Amino acid sequence: MAMKARTLQRHFRESLKSLTRNGWMTFASISAVTVTLLLVGVFTIIMMNLNKVADDIENDVEIKVLIDIMEDSEQAKAAEKQLIKQIKALPAVEEVVYSSKEQELDLLIKDYGEDLSLFEQSNPLNNVLYVKAKDPQQTVKVAKQIEKLEHTQEAVYGKEKVEKLFNFLNISRNVGIVLILGLLFTAIFLISNTIRITIFARKDEIEIMKLVGATNSFVRIPFVLEGMWLGILGSIIPITVISVLYSNIYKLIQPSMNGELLQLLDTTPLLYQVNALLLAIGVFIGIWGSFMSVRKFLKV
Amino acid sequence: MIQMKNVVKKYPNGVVAANGITIDIKQGEFVYVVGPSGAGKSTFIKLMYREEKPTSGDVIIAGTNLSTLKNRQVPYLRRQLGVVFQDFKLLPRMNVFENVAYALEVIEENPQVIRKRVMDVLDLVGLKHKVRMFPNELSGGEQQRVSIARSIVNMPKVVIADEPTGNLDPDTSWEIMNIFEEINARGTTIVMATHNREIVNTIRRRVIAIEGGLIVRDVNGGEYGYES
Ligand SMILES: Nc1ncnc2c1ncn2[C@@H]1O[C@H](COP(=O)(O)OP(=O)(O)OP(=O)(O)O)[C@@H](O)[C@H]1O
Ligand SMILES: [Mg+2]
């Protein structure tokens, strides 16, 4: 039998009424939602930022290819051009940037001081190619391929450092995912447990409703809607706190990080995503928790 | 309207509260159920709206055999019966109006009709001035009258009342009996468990006496038959 629209209206009214009449039980459930969502939210934001840092570091990994030192000549230029072409042709290569030995020396002088300027007379450095792999994880493979090419003296990529870094990043990502999942399960458990306790206190009501001729869904729907309100109300504080906090931290820290490798994620879309996630979790758990708890007492 | 055939009810703790009850109550009858405390009157009544299921035997209400009734059909059975519970069974978080209205809301009655009918029956049981009060703000007798109002508000074919005057003063008891007589005169079947000797002996109707889970007496126009 289809439910009449006014009955749905009635259920909505009933759920709101019950919310206000339940006093401390409503408060307890909302608090449980608030606390857990706050934790989930903070952790998600930290994890997403760590992830970004990890991505940034990964993408910054490049191979430094030292080109054989050759007499300045047309031939040498052609050989270098040929080498660049060959590297660019490798399928895993994203970009190749040429840096002459003069540019390299300038970089060194910038880093270590004018003492090095005496080398300007007879520059001992190599011309260099900076190569980036399309997928950072392929750096090692690409470096090996490049070393086999003619006129390459060496392809340096901080062998062990890079491998360790990738291992570390993978582990930290997995740990983060496990942490957030664990937190989510705790949240689901805590919230649905609180709701179960509040509904348990009302099992006599459910029994009476059924004795007066209410169908299971007629009893259940107001409870489920009440769970939904609990989820919505419980996510208001976490959403507000996280938005305000993150915006302020971002405003405070971001200016000093301009041009640095490490960057915080922009507030948009991050805050929209996280807030939508929190609201969705709250509503889902509220509805699900109520549904499961009422179900137990409906077998009258 | 109400039939029982060899109904036995044995509670999980071993108490046999119905020990082979066979009865036939016709549409429009007014029946008192009497007997000492613990005799099995409430059990007899609970079997009718399927709060309890018989251990063996059949209960047939308005042609429906309750043993074959599926769980999800039970609400529709209960809507045909108005029940006054011995312990009232009011919803504690709903006020008087809402408690009575609940019986009409479950059948998705329209709100204007609900308002009018609820106010009418509350007027009938003398509680019109307390519609906004909650059960814990009412005396036992007032709660009982709310329970009575709820049982008759959807004009059921059968009203089953478990000691509906148990908590009422004599005047109010007679008023309630007037209401029952009135709706009985309109064709409603009434089954009423009671310890009220005066009422049974004054308004003479069919009397069924239960002792130890058995019907020991079934007389039209009978007497209460016990010392008060
Ligand atoms: N849910 C139950 N579980 C176990 N035993 C029960 C249950 N309900 C009733 N009984 C037992 O069944 C017997 C009959 O109880 P019932 O409530 O039907 O008596 P009654 O005639 O209504 O008594 P009263 O006049 O005091 O209301 C009693 O011995 C009681 O202890
Ligand atoms: Mg009884």
UniProtKB/TrEMBL annotation, chain B:
GO cellular component: plasma membrane
GO terms for MF: ATP binding; ATP hydrolysis activity; transmembrane transporter activity
Transmembrane segments: none
Subcellular localization, as worded in the UniProt entry: Cell membrane
Residue ranges occupied by any ABC transporter domain in the UniProt entry: 2-228
Alphabetical list of InterPro entries matching this protein: AAA+_ATPase, ABC_transporter-like_ATP-bd, ABC_transporter-like_CS, ABC_transpr_LolD-like, Cell_div_FtsE, P-loop_NTPase
Alphabetical list of SMART domains matching this protein: AAA (SM00382)
Keywords assigned by UniProt, alphabetized: ATP-binding, Cell cycle, Cell division, Cell membrane, Membrane, Nucleotide-binding, Transport
Topology of this chain in the membrane: Peripheral membrane protein
Gene Ontology terms: biological process: cell division
Matches recorded under Pfam families: ABC_tran
Function per UniProt: Part of the ABC transporter FtsEX involved in cellular division.
NCBIfam families per UniProt: FtsE (TIGR02673)
Subunit structure: Homodimer. Forms a membrane-associated complex with FtsX.
Family under the similarity heading: Belongs to the ABC transporter superfamily.
PANTHER family reported in the protein's UniProt record: CELL DIVISION ATP-BINDING PROTEIN FTSE (PTHR24220:SF470), IMPORT ATP-BINDING PROTEIN (PTHR24220)
UniProt name for this protein: Cell division ATP-binding protein FtsE
Organism: Ureibacillus yapensis
